[in-house]
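Supplementary Methods S3. Complex input for the 3,4-dihydroxyphenylalanine-bound model.
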Amino acid sequence: MQIITEIESLRLAALSELDKNETLEQLESWRIRYLGKKSELTTILRSLAKLDLEDRKEVGAKANQFKSILESGLAEKKKLLEEAAIISSTEEGSLDVTLPGNVMTTGRLHPTTQVIESICSIFQNMGFQVVEGPEVEWDSYNFDALNIPKDHPARDMFDTFWVDNNETNEKARLLRTHTSPVQIRVMEKEQPPIRVIVPGRTYRYEATDATHESMFYQIEGLAVDKNITLADLKGTLFEFCRLLFGEQRNVRFRCDYFPFVEPGVEVAIECLACHGSGCRLCGYSGWLEILGAGMVHPNVLKRVNIDPEIYSGFAFGLGVERIPILQKGIEDIRLFYSNDLRFLKQF
Ligand code: DAH
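Predicted complex, serialized as structure tokens:
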């Protein structure tokens, strides 16, 4: 058939010309010539309607095959020419090496994570093991087992988010108000000697402002063994403060009350800003409170079947965000969790 021969010779011509195109402009006029609206191919495809059914099938198939060969040849050639264009443009010196480069942004750890890591590593070096516990906790672990029974006024120290409604039920769940319940979980599973450090999130039902967040981090510590005394507590926490805040920093121990320890202490360091002479940061007292601690209350040990006549222990708990707040003079605790990169990138 005449028309098939025509397609065949058109194909030969188109492909041999395709190779000769040396620029993208030349390629574009080749495309118009062979694939454009006024090309012979288009004319052939339009005339198909006039053919009888058998011929239409045969010619249509040939023409479409021809079209797709041209189209893929075109795409391939276009890619080659584009690559060549990039190479030659850089060779001609259009690459300006004095332009500022693309800055590669590197990720970093969140400031809270950085503090947790440095605190944990201090205690790990003293032989403490890092453990974690659940953030949704039973009432009995968060309060009762820590010597805070129902209706005890000490419960008022903790503004609690209840998950279950029934506050009078031991099996009521809550968002843990401190990391101390993990002490109980550890002592239930392990026999002394125990030395653990527990970082984690804690929650308080609190209106947020510059110094209060409803979610914040704490680190709990617990050591239980034979013959552990207040001197061990003091030595450990003294050393911790010196390693974290510097050799010269004065550290103060004073009595404080926490239901799960007896005696309880509060540990403060000499103010980081005024070195003890009194300023706004330390409320003109010269001291910054860093953590609560004490000797584990015998009631707490008894509850987990550790005999307080044989074993004793010390525990401590500290608020994580408070450390960088004091060290770096951060004025608003909410900055930590508002995901503002201008703040986070500074650490
Ligand atoms: N759990 C206490 C709080 O959230 C902090 C604390 C005080 C923990 C004394 C202790 C401790 O282990 O001995 O306020």
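The CA atoms of residues 324 and 330 lie 7 Å apart. Residues 178, 180, 220, 258, 261, 292-294, 315-317 surround 3,4-dihydroxyphenylalanine (CB under 6 Å).
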